[in-house]
Amino acid sequence: MNDEQFDLTIIGGGTTGLYTAFYAGMRDMKTKVIEYQPGLGGKVSFFYPEKKIYDVGGFPGVSGEELVSNVEKQALSVEPTIVTREKISSIEKLDDGSFLLTSGCGGRHYSKTIIIASGLGTFDMEPIQLPGSNLYQSNIHCTIQKIKQYEGKKAAVLSDSRVGVDWALALEGVAAEVYLINHGTEFKAVYEHDIDKLEASTVNVYRETNAVEMKGSDNKLSELVLDSGKRLEVNDLLVYQGLKIEKGKYEKWGITTEKGRIPVGEDMSTNIDGIFAAGDAAIYPHKTMLIASGFSEAMTAVNSAKQAIDPKAKSQVYSTVIYKHS
Ligand SMILES: Cc1cc2nc3c(=O)[nH]c(=O)nc-3n(C[C@H](O)[C@H](O)[C@H](O)COP(=O)(O)OP(=O)(O)OC[C@H]3O[C@@H](n4cnc5c(N)ncnc54)[C@H](O)[C@@H]3O)c2cc1C
After folding, report:
1. By its UniProt entry, which InterPro entries does this protein fall under (predicted)?
2. Using CA atoms, how far apart are residues 140 and 238, in angstroms rounded to an integer?
C-alpha cells in the first residue's frame, strides 16, 4: 500500500486544479492532483475545446484546447503527481489532523491539506449503442479534444443539440468532409446565428435521420449507415446525446454546501480546517464562474493551505523576484 503523505491534494484536474498545482509548486508543496476523467482540463476540455475564449487575462483569444495545454504545461513544470481515472468518494480526518482520501476504485491518498477544485462534480457522456459500435470504440468520440486529429478525415456528428452544431462548425475546414445527423427537425438551444453559419457552411446536415449501423474492418470505422439506407464514408464519429452529471457529494465529506457549491471564507477555507475550495466548486458573494476567477482563488487557497501547514510561511510569493533583501 502506498501511504506516502502529500502536503496538498487537489481534487479535480480542470483549469482551476491544474493552476492550483502550479502555484502549490511555487510554494514548494509536495502536491497531488486527482482527476476522474482520463484527461485533464475539466469543463473546458469536455465542452468547448474548439471554442475561442476571450476573457482570460493575457490572451486576446485562445482556443479551449490551447489554454488547457498551456495550463497543463505550467502545472507539469513543477512536477506534481497526477492521478487520472479516479473519483474521490470519501474524505476522512485522521487523529493528527491530516486527511485520508479514498476513491471508488480502492485508491487511498494521504494529505496534510486538501483543495477541492472539482467544479460541480463529474460528468459522463451517454454512450452510443449502435450495431457495430463496440468494434469501433477508438473512432467514437464524446468530445473534440484535439482538433488536429480530424485533419483530412471524414467525420460525422450525431447530435440534436447546440453542441453538435458547434462541433460540426469547428470541424469544417479541418476535416475533409463533415456530416451532422439529427434525429429531429430542430437543434436544441442553438443560437440563430449559428444556424445561419451552418446553412452557409459545407457541413452536410441530415435532419429527421438516424444512424443505424457502423461498419468497417480491423476495428477501423469506414462507414455509417443511415435509416434512409444511405451509406456515408466516415472515419470518425462524434456523439453528443446528453450528459450524466453526478454532483459532488460534499456533504457526505462533512462539508457544508449551498445550492450544491461550497461556501468559502476570504481565505478560501471551508467549514473543515485544512480543506479549501476554489473554482466553480466554491461560492461566495459576487462570485464569477469564470476560468480566471478559479486561477485567483487557487492562489489564495494554496497560500492558505501553506500557512495551515506552516503558520510562519509567507502569505504569498512572486514568481519573479527582481531584488533580494540581504
Ligand atoms: C459552455 C461553457 C462555456 C464557457 N465559457 C467560458 C468563457 O468563455 N470564459 C470563462 O472564463 N469561463 C467560461 N466558462 C466557465 C468555465 O468553463 C468554468 O468556470 C471553469 O471551467 C471551471 O473550472 P474548474 O476547474 O473550477 O471546474 P471544472 O472545469 O468543472 O473541473 C472540475 C474537474 O474535477 C473533476 N472532478 C469532479 N469531482 C471529482 C471527484 N470526486 N474526484 C476526482 N475528480 C473530480 C471533474 O472531472 C473535472 O475535470 C464556460 C462554461 C461552459 C459550460
Report:
1. FAD/NAD-bd_sf, FAD/NAD-binding_dom, Fd--NADP_Rdtase_type_2, Ferredoxin-NADP_redctase_2
2. 6
| pLDDT tens by residue, 276-286 | 999 999 999 99
* Domain boundaries 127-241, CATH class: alpha beta
Q: How far is CA 211 from CA 31, 135, 149, 181, in A?
A: 46, 16, 23, 8
In this structure, the residues whose C-beta lies within 6 A of any atom of ligand 1 are 11-17, 34-37, 42-44, 47-48, 53, 55, 87-88, 117-119, 121-122, 248, 279-280, 289-292, 294
Domain residue ranges in the chain? 5-123+244-309, 127-241
Regarding the domain delimited by 5-123+244-309, which CATH topology (the fold level of the hierarchy) does it fall under? FAD/NAD(P)-binding domain (3.50.50)
- Give the C-alpha separation, 169 to 223, whole Å: 21
What pLDDT digit, counting tens, does each position of 77-114 carry? 999 999 999 999 999 999 999 999 999 888 999 999 99
Spatial separation of the C-alpha atoms in residues 233 and 246, rounded to whole Å: 36
Do 181 and 226 contact (CB within 8 A), yes or no?
Answer: yes
97's torsion region: left (phi>0), alpha (psi -120 to 50) or beta? left
